[in-house]
């Protein structure tokens, strides 16, 4: 069979994306084209190969046996191509273009705020568009190029690069609170304290995770106050309203100046790092590798 043209290779990428997303609509959103364009590309590809690759109904799409076998082989090749192209980004002296990011508040505070002035000065041709949002959303469907999340919450079909080491979570309170209510000595003591609970982006309440040696606990702590972002939890704890469960890095200043004190440090746990994630088959994004490297150098002492 003659060699594939550039357009036909693009059709193969379309096919793999459809198989991965199992939806023409979601694949079209990821690739930035219309569903009719995808249908046309698939008809051309199937005609050229002489094999039916997809089973399509009004409600679903799935690969045929031949299509599944082809997709498995193509995944490996396209992954190598994407990796090779991505590696070139670090050699571009001045990347240009728009980069849309979705990040939670903790990531904006810890990772972006310290390096943004340097990044903007170093790469003036990058248009960086950042949305700070704690909701667990589909970055592809929402039109973002990449996002940041704690490593254990990154969707399985995304490429993820850790931006930090493991992050320690601790229990803190104000001296005035401890003067009134005493200090918890063991994790079970938390069940008789006022705890400031964190409401996550999916609207669930976060269970406090504590560990000591081989013992690991998840506590659904009591408390009349729930807040959906870290700064609010810290402010409430400083105000003596209760105990907070926070990233140690987020309260370094308060621990130093004495407005907050840590307790149960023998039970503090190292949680997953914050990671940058993005669609595995997306074309190289302008400046993303430079941004990842700059953040990692700030927090881990090395680039990816």
Automatic annotation (TrEMBL):
<dbReference type="Pfam" id="PF03466">
    <property type="entry name" value="LysR_substrate"/>
</dbReference>
<comment type="similarity">
    <text>Belongs to the LysR transcriptional regulatory family.</text>
</comment>
<dbReference type="InterPro" id="IPR058163">
    <property type="entry name" value="LysR-type_TF_proteobact-type"/>
</dbReference>
<dbReference type="GO" id="GO:0006351">
    <property type="term" value="P:DNA-templated transcription"/>
</dbReference>
<keyword id="KW-0805">Transcription regulation</keyword>
<dbReference type="InterPro" id="IPR005119">
    <property type="entry name" value="LysR_subst-bd"/>
</dbReference>
<protein>
    <submittedName>
        <fullName>LysR family transcriptional regulator</fullName>
    </submittedName>
</protein>
<keyword id="KW-0804">Transcription</keyword>
<keyword id="KW-0238">DNA-binding</keyword>
<dbReference type="Pfam" id="PF00126">
    <property type="entry name" value="HTH_1"/>
</dbReference>
<dbReference type="InterPro" id="IPR036388">
    <property type="entry name" value="WH-like_DNA-bd_sf"/>
</dbReference>
<feature type="domain" description="HTH lysR-type">
    <location>
        <begin position="8"/>
        <end position="64"/>
    </location>
</feature>
<dbReference type="InterPro" id="IPR036390">
    <property type="entry name" value="WH_DNA-bd_sf"/>
</dbReference>
<dbReference type="InterPro" id="IPR000847">
    <property type="entry name" value="LysR_HTH_N"/>
</dbReference>
<dbReference type="GO" id="GO:0003700">
    <property type="term" value="F:DNA-binding transcription factor activity"/>
</dbReference>
<dbReference type="GO" id="GO:0043565">
    <property type="term" value="F:sequence-specific DNA binding"/>
</dbReference>
